[in-house]
Amino acid sequence: MRIDDIINRKINPGPIKSREPKSIEIKAPLCLDYLRSIPIKFERKVFNYLFENRDELGISRIWQLKNSRADGLLELNSGEMVLLEIKYALGWARCCQARIQFQWFLIGKVYDRLSIEKPRNSLIVFHHFSADWVKHGWDYFYGEENILSKSLVKTAIAQLTDDGHLIPYPGNVA
């Protein structure tokens, strides 16, 4: 088989089967006691941080999402909806994964199935940069974001530190 045969094949994948998406509004801090997985514990810490600081952050409601690819959804005081993805260690692979998760949510019109307004912005909250992103993670992310400016959703990142600060680029404490 030749390369042009491989790249010109007609492929008809079947429909992607997925469970019905669910949204669970967060109305109280989530329990961390029984969790052993560091990334899952961090995810819960992020939801708790957003919940406990919602007035200061301009958030009116928070949902944890299930079967939706994205981790959560924030409704800002302005009524704007923001997709949320939480990554413990953010490097190139996890960044690409988060962006694809947002695209899947939007292309699949999961927002319609959840009866919410289509999000126009998204946020990745992370604990630390990994691999080669340790030194230049902020620049790598926003450099790629400029290349991906025709993406379905504008994406920003913020670091939640161990001492409870949410730090956006270029590093101002929010």
Q: Report the structural category.
A: alpha/beta
Average pLDDT level: 88
| Principal-axes shape call | globular
C-alpha-based Rg, rounded: 18 Å
Largest sheet data: 7 strands, mixed
Task: Outline the secondary-structure elements.
Layout: H1 3-7, E1 22-25, H2 38-52, H3 54-57, E2 59-66, E3 72-76, E4 81-90, H4 92-107, H5 110-113, E5 121-129, H6 133-147, E6 154-160, E7 166-168
Parallel strand pairs: 4-5, 5-6
Antiparallel strand pairs: 1-2, 2-3, 3-4, 6-7
Please describe what this structure looks like.
- It is a single chain.
- The chain is α/β, with parallel strands linked by helices and 174 residues long.
- The protein contains six helices and seven strands, in the order H-E-H-H-E-E-E-H-H-E-H-E-E.
- A hairpin with a 4-residue loop joins strand 3 (72-76) and strand 4 (81-90).
- The longest helix is centred in the middle third of the chain and has 16 residues, at 92-107.
- It starts with a helix and ends in a 6-residue tail after the last strand.
